[in-house]
Every structure is written in C-alpha cells, then in structure tokens.
Amino acid sequence: MIQTRGLGYRYAGAPEGATLAFLDLDLPSGGTLLLRGPSGSGKSTWLALAAGLTTATQGDMVVGGQSLSALSARQRDAWRARTLGFLPQRGLLSEALSVFDNLALVYFAAGRPVDRDRIEVQLQALGVADLSQRLPSQLSGGQAQRVALARALLLQPALLLVDEPTASLDDEACAQALNLLQQHASGATLVVATHDARVLQAWPQARILKLAVPAIEATT
Description:
Layout: E1 2-10, E2 19-21, E3 25-27, E4 32-36, H1 43-50, E5 58-63, E6 66-67, H2 73-83, E7 84-87, H3 99-110, H4 116-125, H5 141-153, E8 159-163, H6 171-184, E9 189-193, H7 197-202, E10 207-210
Helix pairs in contact: 2-3, 4-5, 5-6
C-alpha cells in the first residue's frame, strides 16, 4: 500500500543539513504503522507527504501503486479526495458550516453527489447524529473529534492518516478515541503519528517507524 525509497524533505529556508531523512518502508494493504519520534522529527511532515499535501524534496513515496511525485498539485487533490481519509491533530472543521455540511464537503471534493443517508449513518455510528446541525464552535472537544473521524471515514477510504489522536487527552478520553479508530478503521491501511505510549498498547502488533530530529553541524 505504501512504499518509500530515499524519502526526504527540507523546509524552505532551513539551514544546510536540516533535511528530514526517512527510512525506507514497505507497508502492505490493511497494515498499521505508528510514526514515533520527538517533536521536530517529522511525524506530521511524513503524514503530509503521504497525503499529497506537500511533495518530497528527495526520493519518492508510492501509495497504492501511485507515485505522488509524478502528480501535479491538482492531480494530488483529486487523488487525495478519492483515496484517503485524513484526521489532523485538531480536526480542522470549517467553523462556518454545520456538522452535516462539513461532512458533505467530502463528497464535493471527490466530485461525487452528496449521500445524505450515508452521512447520517456515519454520524449515528459515532454517536453524534443529534449534533448534525450544530456549528463546530458548539461542540465539545470530544464531539468535534468524533465528527472529524466521521468525516475521515465517510468514503470508506483505503488509507487513513491520523495525527496525534490522543494529544492532551486524559486516559478515559484516550481510550474512547482509540476504540473509535479500532472499530471504524477496520480493513483500512492505518498510519498514526504519536508520541503517546498508550497508542502503542492499543496496537501492540503495529509496525513502528522511528523518526529522529536531523543533526545540524555548527558552522564557523
């Protein structure tokens, strides 16, 4: 499902030597990968590369047989809309739209007609169907997280990318979030960026990709 070779990324304006270099990876369809490493090691960047939100400055990432570096920005947008679900750390729901319309946007992005019944079923499955007409500002943190997960899973993507799903959550809320992912991401290839040991306990058989902050040599 995901294959990387010589993958690296250097931020614009970063000092010489500050390139994030990632180990080569082969992750089969249906597999689970945990990205581990301290802040600055590139966990969110790796997810952005896998989602086609940014492009590698060296090497390549191939997802489902598609080389992402071979796609234009417009082609990556279309590919992303039909291929994957992305759950960013803070959900990124549109504050101007209701819960229902936030999910409807997924269909517009994929160029498909809105399936109102499917949206209602997905919200019901995650226990937030009664919130469909609320704005994100009217949701609790846990409710917003469930809505964001419903959006990510709506089109039953082959690939689900999740960024720090348990950040700042207490043990009870953490357990609920991980249970939701385990229950509703069944069959999908799952990649989770995390620094939380509780996530390791939830997926003891997952592949782990350890990332490191690039060492920058001092210059004189």
